[in-house]
Amino acid sequence: MKDRILLVEDDREISEMLRDYLQTEDYETVCAFDGQEACEIFDKEDFSLVLLDLMIPKLSGMEVMRHIRANSVVPILILSAKDSDSDKSLGLGMGADDYITKPFSLVEVVARIKSNLRRAGQYNRPKAPDRPKNLEAGDLVLNLTDYTVSRRGERIELTAKEFEILRLLMSHPKQVYTKEQIYSLVWKDSYLGDENAVNVHISRLRNKIEEDSKKPKYIQTVWGIGYKLGDLS
Question: pTM of the prediction?
């Protein structure tokens, strides 16, 4: 079954170029040209991934992302001509899984799509029977069977990257991971010194799992090195 991609881009030339290329890569692609249309299509159909331009009419890309994230953890890849760190931080902080700046190469876009779909697919990947079904830390329970996370029985919705960061730390509770190691292990890509992506995802993850994100007990910063799971014994 083909992966279905919702492409939200108001520039019809770029949209058609991306759609045609994605179809040659065997992705079924549905196009939306404004934010309102994107939300309506997303609510009616199932998609494996969303490619989302930020500068679109009627509803902005950020508003579309908020709408999607209210009910779904589908991977969202931002397409934007804005390439400042603050723009990237805002987009990632709002719930995007990746950020691609314009102008971009079609090869890069497809590589990012494949990478994000591969990570998202791990939510449904069966695990070996001899592995533990749950990882626990204090009140936090990470279920490796259905890829859910809960705290005191209440489910917490995480994106694929947030889940993988948490799983990495909970699987090795005494190990300190550098930002480079986290990026390499979770993003499955070479670390090019851009620690912003890791910082934003750690911050977003803390906001979801910590009772007080300013005084985190699950994900602790080891200054000058990186992050580790807190000692909850």
Answer: 0.58
